[in-house]
TrEMBL record:
PANTHER family listed in its UniProt record: FANCONI ANEMIA GROUP C PROTEIN (PTHR16798:SF0), FANCONI ANEMIA GROUP C PROTEIN FANCC (PTHR16798)
InterPro entries reported in the protein's UniProt record: FANCC
GO biological process, one term: nucleotide-excision repair
Name of the featured protein: Fanconi anemia group C protein
Gene Ontology CC terms, in alphabetical order: Fanconi anaemia nuclear complex
Domain of life of the organism encoding this protein: Eukaryota
Organism: Dryobates pubescens
Length: 555
């Protein structure tokens, strides 16, 4: 770095000597001397800031070892901090010395010292003239200086919050009271204090504040710092503040989504309850009720799906996110709901409406008909020549992926309900094999029908052996196309879970269909999803739940 020549060491020594000489400027002589030097001092402080803002805090202290003493003394001189923009420049300099990620006790202590100076500077403009009287009064009441400044910070926060809320009353900016530049300065001054609990009301107010200008009035450093602190659980913010942060600062939303994806893909979870808990904690599903947030998050998920070639972990993340989003949407005040088209503006709206229906909203007796309607609409779309391009096909397929809960129910309904299998099998065939190049989906459909017919003949049997399922299992092991393997594995898994009778060899049969890592992961995912969704009431369901738990422990 070529910054050490900008602020010569001689100047540091000169101004430190002056600061020591002045003290708190209690004599007439020292006050006159301070007054004579204020313009040069302010220029010098600005030079310091211009140098520090390009440097790491640790490097800055190493290169300028006198800087802490100098700034500390100047912060307590009422004539210095009362002159023009010196107070603001001092705060900027202190912020540059603040360590965002303190690595040792020395840096932690330095951060604490910087916070105390900032608290003093933020409150000094109202109180410096009565410092002696206040000190005596505090001592009489038994309060410490720390208590005093803590109360001052709280009062300052309350004052700023009241001022900003009144200026932004009912979302209508009343011009002339608080300038956008002032709001920007307040956001900048908050940077080193962001993790202080007392500052949370001010953070919330700033994030929800909208000035008269068309451009962003809050500093980008402030928005990035709040995002980082929220992501690392260093601060807690209300829902409105988090949503506002993500709406006004796209990088924060992208970072939060990618961070969640990384969490869920890199950690192996034993249940979807755990996945849902981590996801709710991120606040993304709740915030996604705003269409702009939903579409951005979905776009990131879509890209992740493409980059990972449809990785099962990413698919699971997308489907759990969609379920939690639908829950949040259902709980939202009906007066403030957005139309469904706002979330999927470029898709066939009747299909979107059908997929948005949660299974719990419909009687179980209507599920098969609802799935048939979805399948018929989907088939008409896919076979329409205007949506036959690979990009259009992927968009339709991604829509189906998002609402994967209906696909799991389709596979169950094929075995548990009296249904016309053609539509439901086609729906599953499209999901596992969206492309029909070289008649892939057609061939998948033929094989799925054959396996399904075989399974239905065995469904009423009370005693099964490995040999009974050998033909169906052989269909999986002999199929080279991955999509066929996945679809048939799905059917076989559901058959073993929901077929009537007590199949004592169910676990042994599961081992036959999990003979590869790929199929094992798929079966495990299916079991976890079923355990998350299944109703635990009823004797048959209790048997299924028991089998699920045993299998999940061993797989």
């Amino acid at each position: 770095m070529a910054h050490d020549t900008t602020v010569p060491k001689l100047n540091f020594e000169f101004w430190l000597d002056k600061a020591i000489e002045w003290g708190q400027a209690t004599t007439l002589e020292s006050q006159k001397d301070v007054y004579l030097h204020l313009p040069q001092l302010q220029q010098f402080l600005h030079q310091i800031y211009e140098t520090l803002k390009h440097m790491d805090s640790v490097v800055a202290i190493q290169q300028f070892p006198l800087i802490g003493q100098l700034l500390g003394r100047l912060c307590w001189n009422p004539f210095v901090i009362g002159y023009d923009e010196s107070q603001k420049t001092l705060m900027w300099c202190l912020y540059c010395l603040y360590s965002n990620e303190p690595q040792n006790p020395v840096e932690l202590k330095a951060n604490s010292w910087i916070r105390s100076l900032l608290c003093h500077l933020l409150s000094s403009s109202k109180w410096e003239s009565n410092e002696a009287e206040n000190s005596t009064f505090m001592s009489t009441l038994g309060y410490t200086s720390a208590d005093y400044h803590c109360c001052l910070v709280k009062n300052m926060v309350l004052s700023l919050v009241t001022e900003l809320r009144e200026n932004n009353f009912n979302g209508l900016n009343i011009q002339g009271r608080v300038s956008d530049s002032h709001v920007n300065a307040v956001s900048h001054f908050c940077l080193p204090l962001i993790t202080l609990p007392d500052l949370t009301p001010l953070l919330e107010t700033l994030l929800c504040y909208h000035g008269g200008a068309s451009k962003e009035i809050l500093g980008s450093e402030f928005l990035e710092a709040v995002s980082e602190a929220f992501l690392k659980k260093k601060i807690s913010l209300p829902a409105s503040a988090v949503s506002s942060l993500w709406l006004r600062h796209l990088p924060s939303l992208e970072k939060a989504t990618l961070y969640l994806l990384d969490q869920l893909v890199s950690i192996q979870f034993d249940s979807l309850e755990e996945v849902a808990c981590v996801m709710k904690d991120s606040f993304l599903p709740q915030a996604a009720i705003h269409p702009a947030i939903f579409r951005i998050v979905n776009e990131i998920f879509k890209n992740a799906l493409l980059e990972t070639d449809g990785a099962l972990e990413v698919v699971t993340t997308i489907q759990v996110f969609t379920q939690l989003f639908l829950e949040a949407l259902q709980n939202e005040n009906k007066q403030h709901k957005f139309p469904l088209k706002a979330y999927f503006p470029y898709h066939h709206q009747p299909l979107v409406t059908a997929l948005f229906k949660r299974p719990l909203e419909l009687p179980t007796t209507y599920w098969s008909q609802h799935l048939k309607n979805i399948s018929d609409m989907l088939k008409a779309l896919v076979e329409d020549s205007s949506t036959s391009s690979p990009a259009d096909l992927f968009e339709v397929w991604f829509l189906v992926v998002c609402f994967g809960e209906w696909l799991d129910i389709a596979a169950e309904q094929l075995l548990k309900a009296a249904v016309e299998p053609e539509a439901l099998l086609w729906l599953l065939a499209f999901y596992y094999c969206p492309q029909n190049e070289n008649q892939q989906r057609t061939q998948t459909m033929v094989e799925a029908q054959a396996v399904y017919g075989h399974l239905m003949t065995l469904f009423s049997c009370t005693v099964l052996s490995v040999k009974d399922l050998e033909a169906a299992v052989q269909s999986v092991t002999d199929t080279e196309q991955c999509c066929n393997q996945h679809l048939i594995t799905h059917l076989l898994t559901n058959f073993l879970l929901f077929s009537c009778g007590e199949h004592m060899i169910a676990q042994e049969l599961f081992y036959h269909i999990t003979d590869t890592n790929d199929r094992s992961k798929q079966v495990c995912s299916l079991l976890i999803r079923t355990a998350y969704r299944i109703d635990h009431d009823g004797e048959e369901n209790q048997r299924t739940v028991k089998l699920l738990n045993e299998l999940l422990q061993k797989l």
